[in-house]
Amino acid sequence: MKGRGDVDSIVSSMGVKLHYFEPSGRKVWTVVGKENEHWLDPELGFCSCEDYYYNVLSTGGKCYHLKAVLAAQEKGKVETVKFSDSEFESFIAALVKDLI
Ligand SMILES: [Zn+2]
Protein backbone atom coordinates (compact mmCIF):
# COMPACT_ATOMS: atom_id res chain seq x y z
CA MET A 1 0.00 0.00 0.00
CA LYS A 2 1.42 3.33 -1.03
CA GLY A 3 1.25 6.15 1.47
CA ARG A 4 0.50 9.80 1.31
CA GLY A 5 4.21 10.60 1.04
CA ASP A 6 4.35 9.19 -2.47
CA VAL A 7 1.56 11.47 -3.60
CA ASP A 8 3.24 14.52 -2.09
CA SER A 9 6.62 13.72 -3.56
CA ILE A 10 5.15 13.22 -7.04
CA VAL A 11 3.26 16.50 -6.84
CA SER A 12 6.17 18.51 -5.48
CA SER A 13 8.55 17.13 -8.11
CA MET A 14 6.04 18.13 -10.84
CA GLY A 15 5.55 14.48 -11.76
CA VAL A 16 1.99 15.11 -12.92
CA LYS A 17 1.91 16.08 -16.57
CA LEU A 18 -0.93 17.20 -18.77
CA HIS A 19 -0.32 16.77 -22.48
CA TYR A 20 -2.70 19.17 -24.13
CA PHE A 21 -3.43 18.82 -27.83
CA GLU A 22 -4.48 21.81 -29.91
CA PRO A 23 -6.79 22.77 -31.42
CA SER A 24 -8.97 19.80 -30.41
CA GLY A 25 -8.36 20.27 -26.67
CA ARG A 26 -7.72 16.56 -26.15
CA LYS A 27 -5.96 15.85 -22.88
CA VAL A 28 -3.61 13.05 -21.95
CA TRP A 29 -2.47 12.81 -18.32
CA THR A 30 0.66 11.02 -17.24
CA VAL A 31 2.27 10.58 -13.84
CA VAL A 32 5.91 9.76 -13.36
CA GLY A 33 5.99 7.20 -10.60
CA LYS A 34 8.91 5.52 -8.88
CA GLU A 35 9.80 3.27 -11.79
CA ASN A 36 8.00 4.41 -14.87
CA GLU A 37 5.46 6.73 -16.30
CA HIS A 38 1.78 5.87 -16.19
CA TRP A 39 -1.09 6.94 -18.34
CA LEU A 40 -4.23 8.09 -16.58
CA ASP A 41 -7.67 9.31 -17.30
CA PRO A 42 -8.81 11.08 -14.12
CA GLU A 43 -12.28 11.66 -15.56
CA LEU A 44 -12.79 7.93 -15.99
CA GLY A 45 -10.75 7.11 -12.88
CA PHE A 46 -8.41 4.98 -14.99
CA CYS A 47 -4.69 4.37 -14.55
CA SER A 48 -2.37 2.05 -16.45
CA CYS A 49 -0.40 0.88 -13.41
CA GLU A 50 -0.43 -2.63 -11.91
CA ASP A 51 -1.87 -1.41 -8.63
CA TYR A 52 -4.90 -0.15 -10.52
CA TYR A 53 -5.25 -3.34 -12.47
CA TYR A 54 -4.90 -5.72 -9.53
CA ASN A 55 -6.35 -3.74 -6.62
CA VAL A 56 -8.29 -0.67 -7.64
CA LEU A 57 -10.63 -2.43 -10.06
CA SER A 58 -11.76 -4.82 -7.33
CA THR A 59 -11.86 -2.37 -4.41
CA GLY A 60 -13.11 0.72 -6.26
CA GLY A 61 -10.46 2.93 -4.67
CA LYS A 62 -7.74 5.03 -6.29
CA CYS A 63 -4.10 4.24 -6.91
CA TYR A 64 -1.56 6.83 -5.80
CA HIS A 65 -1.15 8.12 -9.37
CA LEU A 66 -4.82 9.09 -9.51
CA LYS A 67 -4.50 10.67 -6.07
CA ALA A 68 -1.45 12.58 -7.30
CA VAL A 69 -3.37 13.98 -10.28
CA LEU A 70 -6.18 15.19 -8.02
CA ALA A 71 -3.71 16.69 -5.53
CA ALA A 72 -1.76 18.41 -8.32
CA GLN A 73 -4.97 19.87 -9.77
CA GLU A 74 -5.90 21.19 -6.33
CA LYS A 75 -2.51 22.78 -5.79
CA GLY A 76 -2.08 24.02 -9.35
CA LYS A 77 1.10 21.99 -9.70
CA VAL A 78 0.43 20.42 -13.07
CA GLU A 79 3.08 20.62 -15.73
CA THR A 80 1.23 21.33 -18.97
CA VAL A 81 2.90 20.46 -22.25
CA LYS A 82 1.21 21.63 -25.43
CA PHE A 83 1.17 19.59 -28.61
CA SER A 84 -0.45 19.90 -31.98
CA ASP A 85 -3.18 17.44 -32.96
CA SER A 86 -0.98 16.14 -35.77
CA GLU A 87 1.32 14.71 -33.08
CA PHE A 88 -1.48 12.89 -31.25
CA GLU A 89 -1.18 9.50 -32.94
CA SER A 90 2.58 9.24 -32.65
CA PHE A 91 2.39 10.43 -29.03
CA ILE A 92 -0.13 7.73 -28.12
CA ALA A 93 1.82 5.11 -30.06
CA ALA A 94 4.99 5.97 -28.13
CA LEU A 95 3.11 5.99 -24.81
CA VAL A 96 1.52 2.60 -25.44
CA LYS A 97 4.86 1.17 -26.52
CA ASP A 98 6.41 2.31 -23.23
CA LEU A 99 3.64 0.68 -21.25
CA ILE A 100 3.86 -2.72 -22.87
ZN1 LIG B 1 -1.74 4.18 -10.96
How would you describe this protein?
The protein has one domain (4-99). The two termini are 23 Å apart. Strand 2 (26-32) and strand 3 (37-41) form a beta hairpin. The protein is of the alpha+beta class. The protein is built from 4 helices and 5 strands; from the N terminus they run H-E-E-E-E-H-H-E-H. The longest helix is centred in the C-terminal third of the chain and has 12 residues, at 64-75. Strands 4-3-2-1-5 form a 5-stranded mixed sheet. It binds zinc ion (ZN). Zinc ion (ZN) binds at residues 38, 47, 49, 51-52, 63, 65. Zinc ion is lined by residues 38, 47, 49, 51-52, 63, 65.
Key features of this structure:
100 residues; alpha+beta; five-stranded mixed sheet; 27% strand; binds zinc ion
Quick synopsis:
This protein has 100 residues and is of the alpha+beta class.
Major sheet: size, sense and barrel closure? 5 strands, mixed
Shape: globular
Percent range for helical residues?
40-55%
Reading the helices and strands in chain order gives HEEEEHHEH
Number of domains: 1
Radius of gyration: 13 Å
**Overall SS class:** alpha+beta
Q: Can you count the helices?
A: 4
Spatial order of strands in the largest sheet: 4-3-2-1-5
The small-molecule ligands in this entry are: zinc ion
Q: Give the end-to-end Cα distance, rounded to a whole number of Å.
A: 23 Å
Question: Unreliable segments (pLDDT under 50, ≥5 consecutive)?
Answer: none
State mean pLDDT (0 to 100 scale).
Answer: 90
Strand runs, count: 5
Strand content: 25-35%
